[in-house]
Write a structure and sequence with these properties.
Distance between the termini: 81 Å
Shape: globular
Helix content: 10-25%
Number of strands: 10
Number of helices: 1
Strand content: 35-45%
Radius of gyration: 22 Å
Length: about 170
């Protein structure tokens, strides 16, 4: 009888540990971290961001408000790093690491911002006084919905693509 009780207790203990371990397994993050790296001219560009999904939501003018500084991703502010001085939309951006923000607009050009404070959570403590560079960029409509936010680096610059919008930024 005592042996049976010990066996049952041991079995319950093992089952409890197994269930506890299973419950502690992490779910995949809603906005996983991602990195885009590439060369534009002689400069190596690295963009670190978190990649949210559309999930049937209204993104522009809904989840992401118009005329408000946005972290250009999820979670921490997106960071943009260049190992050489570059020209962004014809304006000089010194080599360094920056937080990258956008100001979406309902129509017309959007504003791309390179801020000197690269370590920020979202845009909650964003300070315009720390902007290194602001440029206006023309957005383009995508033919198909881009479900998950992505950055692409190409020979002539980089682009953020999400939902039905591409935000290309010219770099030399």
């Amino acid at each position: 009888m005592m042996r049976t009780i010990k066996s049952i207790a041991t079995l319950l203990f093992v089952a409890t540990i197994s269930v506890s371990a299973f419950a502690q397994e992490k779910k995949a993050p809603a906005s996983p971290a991602a990195t885009a790296t590439g060369k534009i001219g002689d400069a190596t560009i690295t963009i670190n961001y978190s990649s949210p999904a559309v999930k049937g939501r209204t993104i522009w003018g809904g989840l992401e408000k118009y005329d408000v500084v946005w972290r250009a991703g999820a979670n921490d502010a997106t960071t943009f790093e260049t190992d050489k001085d570059i020209k962004v939309e014809g304006k000089t951006l010194p080599a360094g690491k920056y937080s990258f923000f956008l100001i979406p607009k309902e129509s017309g050009t959007w504003t791309a911002i390179f801020n000197k404070e690269p370590k920020q959570w979202g845009a909650y403590k964003y300070e315009a006084a720390k902007d290194q560079l602001r440029v206006d960029v023309k957005v383009k409509a995508l033919k198909e919905t881009q479900e998950r936010l992505v950055y692409k680096i190409e020979k002539k610059g980089f682009a953020l693509e999400w939902d039905k919008v591409s935000v290309p930024v010219a770099v030399k």
